[in-house]
Amino acid sequence: MLVARAMSECHMYMDLHPCERCGEADFPWTVHEAAERAGQRISSYEGDCPSCGTHRRFEFVVLDPNLPPPGLGGPEPSTIIDPGGFFEVGEWAAGALKVAPDASPDEVADAYDAAIDAVATVEEILKFLPPGADSVPEEAFTSGRGHAIRAADPGRFERSRLEATLAERRRVLVDLTARVEALRESNGW
User: What is the DSSP-derived secondary structure letter of residue 1?
Assistant: First the structure.
């Protein structure tokens, strides 16, 4: 069974695993069950693929079901999402960070949520770095997609580049936080 550190990690894992039959990325699960089994919190998700109708089910042991998003876990790296997976999600999120000066409150809120994810994913990749290492070791990449992402540009997993990316994404998050706060004050949002 998959072991997730938090509920948000379950959701990210499902986002990274399209339908095996048709490749549809969207998984609008319709059944969620949470239970205790043998002293462990189990969370399962079921639903049908919207493209081909294949029934899908994911089941996780959740180590910290009370960790609120965007938290994905403690100081330990994920055992179900490799650095390439986090990089991929971070790139999706980073693509949604730009908002026009006249953006609607909803567009600003969406960019803010994306900025939180963009920061969290880099923080997660950094957890795979052994102390004193200059880059994420190749053996940390456990998925085919993760290996392909690393092979395309191994430099993006170097400590210095990750730290620079994290600093830039945190700067964007600070800017978007200020915009969200200003909207809340001016619109009673």
Answer: -
**Into how many domains does the chain fold?**
2
Q: What is the pLDDT of residue 32?
A: 97
In 3D, which of 116, 138, 120 has the Cα closest to residue 128? 138
Are 87 and 65 within 8 A, CB to CB? no
In angstroms, the CA 147 to CA 151 distance is 6
Q: Is 73 inside a domain boundary?
A: no
Per-residue pLDDT at 81 exceeds 60: yes
Model confidence band, residue 188 (pLDDT cutoffs 50, 70, 90):
low
Is residue 120 domain-shared with residue 168, that is, in the same domain? yes
Q: What is the DSSP string of 50-69?
A: TTT--EEEEEEEES-TTPPT
Pair 129, 104: CB distance under 8 Å: no
**183 and 96, same structural domain?**
yes
